[in-house]
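dumping this here so i dont lose it
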């Protein structure tokens, strides 16, 4: 295993989820939130948010379909401590195609990076079994995809980046 800084477990989990399905952009709005459809991920985010920041945030309904059924949930965390953490990492204010992985992650040990990547892929990745047997992740940010590719090479995992098309956003396939 590669030796590096052992990241706080909760920090690695929160950062993976936030970069994938979080919003921490536009400094004017002061909005920070994590949105997902998978209850398990929301509960894990909530638990580790409490562990890392010592503050419990509720899970609230967010999206609804035409019949009024809830389709996604959101955890808001608009406080100075969260904002300062993201500012210290150098990523506060990044949205969509401007999202990147903080430099600090590249100094982490492999176990911490594996945990971070696991949550990133859990929130925004896919697995297609059957004939194609493919794993991938889609993101608006090509720089983010290149950084994910770089981190995967630390584990000997080869991947390829595909630029956006008229039908889909940029993606990385393993």
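and the seq i came up w/
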């Amino acid at each position: 295993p590669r030796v590096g800084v052992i990241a706080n477990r909760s920090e690695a989990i929160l950062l993976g989820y936030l970069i994938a399905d979080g919003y921490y952009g536009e400094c004017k709005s002061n909005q920070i939130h994590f949105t997902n459809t998978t209850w398990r991920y929301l509960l894990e985010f909530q638990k580790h948010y409490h562990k890392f920041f010592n503050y419990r945030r509720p899970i609230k309904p967010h999206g609804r379909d035409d019949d009024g059924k809830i389709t996604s949930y959101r955890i808001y965390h608009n406080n100075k401590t969260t904002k300062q953490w993201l500012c210290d990492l150098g990523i506060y204010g990044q949205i969509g195609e401007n999202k990147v992985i903080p430099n600090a992650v590249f100094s982490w040990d492999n176990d911490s990076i594996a945990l971070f990547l696991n949550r990133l892929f859990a929130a925004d990745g896919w697995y297609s079994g059957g004939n194609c047997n493919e794993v991938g992740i889609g993101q608006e940010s090509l720089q983010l995809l290149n950084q994910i590719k770089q981190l995967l090479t630390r584990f000997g995992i080869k991947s390829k980046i595909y630029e956006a098309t008229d039908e889909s956003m940029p993606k990385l396939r393993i």
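Residues 53 and 89 are 15 Å apart (CA to CA).
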